[in-house]
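A quick aside before the break. I want you to see a complete sequence-to-structure record at least once, exactly as it would be stored in a machine-readable document. Don't worry about memorizing anything.
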Amino acid sequence: MALSTNLISGLSSGFDWRSMIDQLMKVEHRPVDLVDNKKKEYQDKLTFFQDMNTRLLSFRTTAQSLADNDAFNLFSISLSTNSSNYQASEFLTITANSAAMPGSHTVTMNANSSVAQARKISSKSFSSYDTALNLSGELVLNGRALKVETTDDLQDIMNKVNNLNSGSNATEITASILTVSVDNFRLVLTGDNTGADSFTIFDAGSDAQSLLSSGLGFTDGATSVKNILSNGAQSEAFASSTQSVASLLGISTAQSGAVTL
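That is the input. The structure line, written in tokens, reads:
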């Protein structure tokens, strides 16, 4: 039979030895407690910095993705057709990249269609949309002048055309840039109204037709009389018979040279 031992501290002396010993042991153990507390503090800091490192790595990965041009694809694309027999995707595949410009384009599959379409003309091909074209001159779009400067790129001209299409005297001509491939860009002018004569465009420079034809490639350089009469031709209508033509057209510098009819 096991015997139990009971200790009664201070029974004969009246002094609580057990309590004193416990307190002394706690004092002796204090350095260990301090080390444990420091260890926990360092572990908490380590956990914090590990979490911060994970977050910074995630931020770096996200920031690196901004170097990719595809991260700035701001425009969505869509295809539609008025045909009940075919889907548009059966004929065309389109993509939009970081160089995409807002605009809409129509591809006519039926050459015999009699549906009225808005007039749309395209410039010649350019290898870049944001490189200066080194062209200068003035164009008249539906009676409003547009000045092209040597530092203008294709996008600058597009913005100038669209700026004229505002206010009470808007040209009703919208410009956009068509991306054919990575090095093939074209400036497209579209009339806001339907019909072959929905807008007019003239070269008002000193070298007639050079900006439209050899410069931007909107025309082939050939000319024809627009307003034919039975015994000649007439100009467009003007608001004044005494004001200079340059002023009526909004041209900053009058065209020089002679025109023979």
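Two observations worth writing down. Helices lie at 17-65, 154-164, 211-215, 245-249. The first strand starts at residue 118 and ends at 122. We'll return to this after the break.
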